[in-house]
């Protein structure tokens, strides 16, 4: 009476990926337009079925599906949550494991598998779409994780072209957090975290007053480096 | 060329549950001894396969498996993370969704399905066991979530017999957090959160000095009520 694979009707298992970036200072998310049923023609988070013959684990499957459907490679993927029930997919009981990342803008590929288009959408426009399956809910879950995570990581630094001013950096954090930051406190925390170095390049000419200093991340800065930009603490 | 269920070899899908409680002030976790292969005879977190015919969603499946295997009903279940790869289960590519809860001590049932025993283990003893599959890792993930969550919820209050003293309450928080708390700060935060009421009962006789006041949770206190007992903030 021991279990054998095939004894049970197993749920479908997919991975989905919410990739965020900043384009001209505005938060964007990467969506694909579905080429196949169900939800053909709808926009969706890139994702798809686990390939039990080739994928070693969930995170690898997520990276593979992202690349196959958009041409984009994520520098890291963070697991957000897992949704699973009898109704979210018309093909049957379905489980999806959601991953997310915030990364520098990368172009999408022209040829992609099983989708008719892959495009960076301004987040607010994406949220107003009727996305496939429960992807509006998944996108909201990923966006909340991104905001809460941004309160204590340096992730937004990697969305900026170098070199950047502290004002540009603060604007990037504010856009990803979805909330304003107090300038003096932000600068004190960022500078005391010792993660930036002055670029040494001359600031662009023009403007009034003292020109803003230009910075870039210190060599070897880890994505998961810790800097608390909001809330209590130093 | 549209997808049909059965076209792909789908991973096995299970749910596992880490249920914590305090027994005589010490953190315990609920484990079952496996009656079947694989890992027959090993202790494991209670869990099992999704039943796609009867389970409506992942959380319901987790509650059902917990009850079937231990007789215990959890008042809530929080999703912790999902593990999935080609090697964690000898039966094949396997995904498990991990849930956790902290609750008042409840007795285990004498008759349970597919397990030979269900027992509350002191956490440190459980961690020293070689548990089935990757359950040592899952238990560690659940324990970390419990600790971080306890920093800002009232959950440990529900593990105590009423009425309790503030010292007993602080000890419960410290055991679940796995870290000491500063007495004066803890009392200020708990009392200013306005979640306790004096029980009105006479404290036990004896002892020196002023007897400690006895408290219980205010009626209607929500499990997810917010009180920050450690770190910055008021």
From TrEMBL, chains A, B:
Source domain of life: Bacteria
Residue stretches in coiled coil: none
Record Pfam families: NUDIX, WHD_NrtR
Limits of the Nudix hydrolase domain: 12-146
UniProt xrefs under PROSITE patterns: NUDIX (PS51462)
PANTHER family the record matches: ADP-RIBOSE PYROPHOSPHATASE (PTHR43736), SLR1690 PROTEIN (PTHR43736:SF4)
The protein's name: NUDIX domain-containing protein
Biological classification of the source: Bacteria, Pseudomonadati, Pseudomonadota, Gammaproteobacteria, Pseudomonadales
